[in-house]
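Deliverable D4.2, example record:
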Amino acid sequence: MKKKIYVFGHINPDTDSICSAIAYAHLKKELGTENIKAVRLGKVNKETQFALNYFGVKAPPLIENIKPQVSDMNYYAVPPVYTDDSVKRAWDVMTTNNRQMIPILHEDHKLAGVISISDIAKTYIGLTDATVLKKHKTPFINIPAVLEGKVIFGNYPDSCIQGDVYTTASIGDDTVLNATDIIITGANQSQIQTAFSSGAGCLIITDQNLSSLNISIPSSASCAVICTPHSFFKTIKMISQSIPVKNILINQNIIYFETDDSLDEVKEVMLDSPHRHFPILDEEGQVRGIISKRHLIDIQKKQVILVDHNEKDQSISGIEQAEILEIIDHHRIANIDTGVPVFLRAEPVGCTSTIVGKMYELNHITPPDKIAGLMLSAILSDTLIFKSPTCTPDDIRIAKKLAKIAKVNINEYGSDLIGAGTSLEGISAQDLIYVDRKHFTIGKYNVSVSQVNTGDFKSLFSIKDAILDEMKTLESREHLDLSLLMVTDIILGGTELLVAGKERWLAEYAFGLDKTDESIFLPNVYSRKQQIIPKLMTATQI
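Output generated by the structure prediction step:
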């Protein structure tokens, strides 16, 4: 299977971040990219959920990091060996696949234990105990399989061996075996007849050409008859290998890893362990293969496509350990590093979905109405129904085209969409700050800028003190120099900007904030990207 490609926007995703990921993943599938998946890096806000519900699309699954995991290793796959399989079966799998250790499975494919070459070696010294098969409850079917023979007559009285193992040389004229015992004989006819008359429940005849058998079976015989091509002495040596592998496996204090374990966790355990090989299990507890210490240097990085961001601080944990394939964005080019050249499409438009919409046009693909509706939602959200200064003619053109496909009225749907996300009732100060927060490095300063669109200023001022306290907590926890919250109201026509941080002088200089105030209303300010960040950058240069 080809590796999965993840498409995602920034942390604390807004409507554009999630809808662009969904739409671009769909476009890539239409263009032939296999195994691509849209995901999200944070909670779905109320506005985005409204859009998803309206067009009947499920939210992408949440992922918390993109660090390499066990599933990204080129681990060994081995044929399954189950607890009732013979020791010889385990040996054959190990030697064929050149493995020093293999996992042993229960019937449900879950881990029963492990077995190594040294564990098996002692069973290869031959038959030293007549009761060995009985003691280990050996399945009868293991015997012809191990001896590479076949049952040519009769049935053994039980599914597992219940008797002892004899040879014709070890029984006397008056020895009578019972119907659960096994007797091994050579190809001599008199020996075979002696074996038939012994009363054993199973007769193993050695030195046979399986393609041209000529065995005279008495009419009174009721035992199972197995013929094997191996010599008498080799058969005696091999038969012990038919005992079930469960009898010699190690099932205590097994060190194993799961496919979603991070590489960092695996390294720590491996380097402290005397073992070289370890089973790996999937999320359902089923065994998938084996990894060894050498796999630590053979990692397949997760492949990702970034939409609506290109800054490390706005992306997922572990992004530096991923392979970035593409970036589709409408923000400034920042500090994402890539090991190899990538496809980058960045345009000065109001919304990433506008760019994705243009890419549908470029490839002569019409998006389904649901996908068109999501891209339209993103554009209306990011441009505040075309009122934001970031809005461009391309945003308007693409939005109108998508509205026709989605069969919605732009103004009516846009008002419902923005309205769904504007109520602050029941939202905590913490949720308000994190609903759409981005981190910026501006010169030597670490700055956080959150934004919420609302028509509910009354609720805002009732929790203003709690918001400022949370902003100060955030500043301390993340070592920020400045924390800002934009509360934008397209009806009032501007943004109330809340400010906290030891470097608040930047906001005082950039926006005329009074030294005694904690917020200021900025008329006709809607855009973090065009109207907040550039002024802060200018302030750092004074």
